[in-house]
Amino acid sequence: MTTVQKIKEIEDEMVSATDLGSDAVLSIAGQEYVLVRSTSRQLKAKLAKLRRELLGPTGGGGGWGPRIRCRKNRYSYRGFVGFPSVGKSTLMSKLTGTHSETSEIDFTTLTTVPGTLKVHGAPIQILDLPGIIEGANDGRGRGRQVIAVARTCNLIFIVLDVLKPLGDKKLIETELEGFGIRLNKKPPAILVRKKDKGGIAITNTVPLTNIDQDEIKAVLSEYKINNADIAIRQPNATADDLVDVIEGNRVYIPALYVLNKIDAISIEELDLLYKIPMSVPISSREWMNIDELIEKMWETLNLVRVYTKPRGLAPDYSSPVVLRRGKCTVEDFCSSIHKEIAKQMKYAIVWARVQSMREGRKSG
Ligand SMILES: Nc1nc2c(ncn2[C@@H]2O[C@H](COP(=O)(O)OP(=O)(O)OP(=O)(O)O)[C@@H](O)[C@H]2O)c(=O)[nH]1
Ligand SMILES: [K+]
Ligand SMILES: [Mg+2]
């Protein structure tokens, strides 16, 4: 029996215990739980604890149900990351029409649940993810796996509950950063080229304001790099930026802060929320301000839609090929369909409604 099935069994038992109107004893994984009609709150907490145990790397004894899996294929994903019960699944279910279990109990979602939302004709893949807890990137709960999936996304929605302290924003950021994810940041314009000899040579095309030559050398010596050319073109580069470049396994992902449950706050409080950069206040349950969320998502994704046109016929506007701006040459278009197509193609005629669409001819 998988863990998910086990939890379902507990929930069913909870219902029947309530029906019985008396105490019932339930044994799960060798532990006995006394189900009392009047203690449903306690039971829920127990269930949440059990779920968290099962989420943990040691708990569950490998009885985990469907594994968190997310392969990066021709689809790219956008994922919901947040603490438990902030409303990720409510939002995902309503946005995409794909059912993902919701409830007031923490750790309701136990696996990755994918759904698709069409925005301006382009299918956008969205992943509902299990809630994470503080310390996730150190291995607490199932957070590591969740964050590993988030690393493969090309947009992260950080979902926050406006009824909980906004310090949660910082906590989530720290968890993601601890896993090498850099949010709303470009890769630092710093070049580190290791050599066999010659010592450390530092050149900078911008003034060094946050780090000096000695500090750069100190960081390099931490990594036992004694011979290297360092070129700094990043204004206000920091030691952290340098470390990121040396470590090399960082991912730079845009993030949108989804501030959920605004139905439960006042207009004055809402005004304050609007000051948070890259944020959208919404209510997923009451379906408030969802249009703004979708538009911000579209802008942040920076996508280009390419419609194909059979000779002599009108373009097929029903299913565009979706490419990323800056990566939308004819060759990119071909590769997104099949890697062989570009080799055989002699030319393409391209009409563009956006300026950045590059000239579409490819000589044969
Ligand atoms: N007031 C209010 N409650 C909401 C809103 N969205 C979700 N909720 C409630 O918040 C609770 C948690 O919702 P879920 O969608 O299960 O939250 P989740 O983030 O997926 O939770 P986990 O999967 O456990 O991490 C449920 O009781 C929802 O009804 C909202 O916009 N306003
Ligand atoms: K929940
Ligand atoms: Mg959920």
From TrEMBL:
Residues of the TGS domain: 302-364
InterPro entries the UniProt entry points to: Beta-grasp_dom_sf, DRG, G_OBG, GTP-bd, GTP-binding_2, GTP1-OBG_CS, P-loop_NTPase, Small_GTP-bd
Gene3D superfamilies: 3.10.20.30, 6.10.140.1070, P-loop containing nucleotide triphosphate hydrolases (3.40.50.300)
Domain OBG-type G: 76-302
Molecular function GO labels: GTP binding; GTPase activity
Keywords: GTP-binding, Nucleotide-binding
Coiled coil: none
SUPFAM superfamilies: P-loop containing nucleoside triphosphate hydrolases, TGS-like
Designated name of the protein: Putative GTP-binding protein C9.07c
Organism: Grifola frondosa (Maitake)
Gene name of the record: SPAC9.07c
